[in-house]
């Protein structure tokens, strides 16, 4: 096994590791594929439907599967809740009524975090630790048929520990998640819902509204559908998301969504005024601003194995600090393939993401920056 990954079987006390996945669909199935076959690891799938459990095993996504929550959770070290957001609290309730392994970690992959994190306090008396999770990768497809070993590779994977979550448990989950090759980002659950509402849930609502608007026009003239080409396809792929998954997400995050929809209406009103006034410069300025921001989006190179060695450096708010770090790495002959400022954490002024094509460069950069008293995270 590659040294880059953690091997839980290295320590004698955890020779076997049981991972239970509840809901082996797009995300649950992709996680299962990342864990299955690792030494000492047993991956169990759960579905409420017996035919689905047979399918999970037949497709080789899990080692075995069951329709019993009790059987799946018994002695499990990690329990992943991968069902629609509207079902998460029921699973927490059911687990809270079962004898779970002491110190086991229960996590979820739901696209909203605040409500499930609050609800999961119920697990504490069971000796289980809940850490909310949300991999920022996915697709408009659903079901175990859409699961992929590479889905989460290079994506951000958000964890939302609370003040009460011990560092030991966070590290344990992070260690397991290394098998996904995703990059962990930690944030508060409420802040997660605000931000993800804006960058994921709002775009899904807009895509659906746009498709439905055009579908309405198409009823009187089929040319709308026939001529819809690149632009329409690009902006509307996500309108094909699973209706139940998205119903649950939007309802769960509705307070945030209502504000975002109103802000969106404001943006459209602004556009309408510019057109009413024939303000061409104003329209062009809207495109310039949007293009500038969009060009700064992180590149998502899913499944690519170049440039996956990354580290994060907290950067104090000094002028010239980024140039200074780049110069220090250059002088040490460390090859940097990308450098990007991200603002994903509340508690530091900024975070710099450094990417390398070689793991040796990542190791050398981490050691150098630590020796220069920078806070470096992997
Ligand atoms: N689709 C995405 O792009 C994406 C990305 C990140 C996180 N998520 C989140 O991951 C979770 C799973 O989404 P997915 O895209 O994998 O969906 P999916 O439909 O592919 O999988 C959902 C799984 O839950 C099971 N399930 C559905 N309804 C159920 C019910 N009533 N009771 C018990 N099990 C039920 C299904 O059998 C399936 O195994 C959701 O909470 C979603 O918000 C989705
Ligand atoms: O790529 C897509 O199709 C997605 O919809 C993925 C996406 C997103 O909006 O980025 C959707 C929902 C998730 O909770 C996380 C990721």
Automatic annotation (TrEMBL):
Its EC number is 1.3.1.12. It is an enzyme of class 1 (oxidoreductase). Residues 310-378 form the ACT domain. GO terms for biological process: tyrosine biosynthetic process. Pfam families: ACT, PDH_C, PDH_N. Belongs to the prephenate/arogenate dehydrogenase family. This is Prephenate dehydrogenase. It comes from Cohnella lupini.
């Amino acid at each position: 096994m590659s040294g880059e990954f953690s091997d839980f079987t290295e320590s004698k006390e955890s020779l076997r590791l049981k991972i239970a996945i509840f809901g082996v669909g797009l995300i649950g199935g992709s996680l299962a594929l990342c864990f299955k076959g690792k030494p000492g690891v047993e991956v169990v799938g759960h579905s409420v439907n017996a035919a689905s459990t047979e399918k999970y095993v037949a497709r080789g996504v899990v080692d075995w599967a069951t329709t019993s929550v009790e059987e799946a959770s018994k002695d499990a070290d990690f329990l992943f809740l991968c069902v629609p957001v509207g079902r998460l609290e029921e699973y927490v309730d059911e687990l809270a009524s079962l004898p779970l392994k002491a110190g086991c970690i229960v996590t979820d992959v739901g696209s909203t975090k605040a409500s499930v994190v609050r609800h999961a306090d119920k697990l504490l008396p069971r000796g289980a630790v809940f850490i909310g999770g949300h991999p920022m990768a996915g697709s408009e497809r659903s079901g175990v048929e859409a699961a992929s070993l590479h889905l989460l590779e290079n994506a951000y994977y958000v964890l939302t520990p609370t003040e009460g979550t011990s560092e030991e448990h966070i590290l344990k989950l992070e260690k397991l998640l290394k098998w996904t090759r995703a990059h962990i980002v930690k944030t508060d659950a409420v802040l997660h819902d605000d931000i993800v509402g804006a960058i994921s849930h709002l775009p899904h609502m807009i895509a659906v509204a746009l498709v439905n608007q055009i579908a309405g026009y198409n009823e009187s003239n089929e040319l709308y559908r026939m001529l819809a080409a690149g632009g329409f396809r690009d902006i509307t792929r996500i309108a094909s998301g699973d209706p139940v998954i998205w119903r649950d997400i939007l309802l769960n995050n509705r307070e945030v969504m209502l504000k975002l929809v109103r802000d969106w209406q404001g943006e459209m009103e602004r556009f309408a005024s510019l057109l009413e006034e024939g303000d061409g410069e104003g329209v062009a300025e809207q495109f310039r601003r949007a293009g500038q921001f969009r060009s700064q989006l992180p590149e998502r190179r899913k499944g690519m194995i170049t440039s996956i060695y990354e580290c994060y450096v907290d950067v104090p708010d000094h002028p010239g600090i980024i140039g200074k770090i780049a110069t220090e790495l250059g002088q040490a002959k460390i090859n940097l393939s990308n450098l990007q400022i991200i603002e994903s954490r509340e508690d530091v002024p900024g975070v710099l993401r450094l990417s390398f094509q070689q793991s040796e460069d990542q190791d050398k950069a981490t050691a150098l920056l630590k020796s220069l008293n920078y806070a470096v995270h992997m």
